[in-house]
Design a protein that fits this description.
With 52 residues, this protein is mainly α. The protein has three helices and no strands. The longest helix is centred in the C-terminal third of the chain and has 27 residues.
Length: 52
């Protein structure tokens, strides 16, 4: 999931991942949570750099 978010998956694995996500509500929820966490961490890092 993290490699997908970071755009580090080969095209074949991206297609498999997206195909699976289309039909798996539990994975969709986990993906949304992981994405939110990644965004929050990136935002916090930017704040620390500015205030640092």
């Amino acid at each position: 999931m993290h490699d997908y978010l970071d755009r580090r998956l080969p095209a074949r694995r991206v297609r498999r991942f997206e195909s699976h996500m289309d039909g798996c509500p539990r994975c969709i929820r986990a993906f949304i949570d992981a994405r939110q966490t990644a965004w929050t961490r990136k935002a916090a890092a930017r704040v620390r750099v500015r205030s640092g």
